[in-house]
C-alpha cells in the first residue's frame, strides 16, 4: 500500500474523527460513550496536562514534562520562518517529502512510515486499533502509560501491568509469560519513562524476534536520541527484518519540538495499512513539518543539546548525592529518585517554591521524577530541594 498523502485520504481521516464517514467500530463505540469521548482522553484527561496546568506560566523551573529546555535548532526556527509564506497551502507535498526522507534514512519502504502531530496521537491510534475487539495490552509498570491507559479507559481493553525488575528495567521474561489468547499488543518504552532505564539491545532484539511471532510489539523510542548510539540501540532493524514490531519516535524530546508537534511510526506495510484509518495526519502543520525536516539532519544541534543535558544531569546527580539521596542512573532527560516523604506533598511543596516535578509510587516507595532543565533551572531545583530534604 502507498503512504502517498493526498487530499482525499487526509479528508477521510479528518472526517473519521468527526464521525461524518463510516467509522471503525471502536470509534463508533468511543463516540457513542460520553464517558470515553476521544477528545476527553486526548486533549484534557492526562495527568501530565493536569500537572502542567497546576504549575501555571509563572513557574521558575518546569521540570515535570521531560521537555528539552534548549529548544529547537536555529535551522528549525529558520525553516519555520521560511515556510510561513507558503503556509496558506495544505502541507501534503511537504508531508510526503518528510515521509520519504524518514523512509530513506531508516532504510524502510515509503509505505512503512506514518506521521503524527507528535507521537502521542500515534500511541492513541494504536490504543484504539489494538482494542477494537477488546483484548488485553501488556506493559511494564511503571511505564509511559498513555497507550495502555487509553486502551483500558476509553476502549475497553484490559491493561496487564508487569512490575519492573529489581533494577527497574522491563521484566521481559515475565512480560512474555503474561501473553495469553486475549493479548493484542505488547508495549515497551525504551528508554523507559519514568525510570530512565534502558534494555540491553541484543536482549530486546532477541525478545522481539521471538515474541513478535505471537503478538505485535510496540516499541516507544521517544528518548532513544539520548543514548550514545541511537541507531544501534533502535528496534528499527527488527522492522527491516520483517518482524511485527512498531517503532514510534517523537521530535518532542532531543529535537526540542514538544510544542511544535511532530512524530512518526515505522512498521510493516500491512500494519501501517491497519493503523492509518485511526491516525489524523491533517493535524500536522506545514511550519512544524518544515522545521522537523531541518532538525532531522542537524546533528550538531542535537549533539549540543545532548551535551548540555548531560551537564545539567551531572549537576543534578551531585545535588542528590550531596543531600544523601540515591537515584536511578538515567539514559534519558529525566532522573528518578526515592523520596523520604509523601510524593504528593513533596511535589506540592516544590511547586510552592516555583519548581514543577512529578511523583510516583511503586516498589513500596515514593519517588520523584525530575526532568533535566537548564543549569539555572537545576539550581532552582537545588534551592527548593535543600529546604525539604
Ligand atoms: C515515552 C513517551 N512516549 C511518547 C510521548 C508523547 O510525546 P509527544 O506526543 O510529545 O510526541 C512521551 C511524552 O512525554 C513519552 O514520554
Rounded to an integer in angstroms, the radius of gyration calculated over CA atoms is: 20 Å
Unreliable spans are 1-45
Biggest sheet strand order reads 2-8-7-6-5-3-4
Cα(first) to Cα(last) distance is 57 Å
Short structural description:
The chain has 389 residues and is α/β, with parallel strands linked by helices.
Describe this structure in words.
The protein is α/β, with parallel strands linked by helices and 389 residues long. The protein contains 17 helices and 12 strands. The chain has helices at 7-18, 25-32, 38-44, 47-55, 74-84, 92-106, 120-130, 146-155, 172-177, 201-211, 230-233, 236-240, 269-275, 286-296, 299-322, 343-352, 375-388; strands spanning 61-62, 113-116, 136-141, 158-163, 183-189, 217-220, 245-250, 263-266, 334-338, 355-356, 358-362, 365-371. The strands form 3 sheets. The protein has a 7-stranded mixed β-sheet with strand order 2-8-7-6-5-3-4, with helices on both faces. A 3-stranded antiparallel β-sheet has the order 9-12-11, covered by helices on one side. The N and C termini lie far apart (57 Å). The model is unreliable at 1-45 (pLDDT under 50). The site of pyridoxal-5'-phosphate has 14 residues, from helix 7.
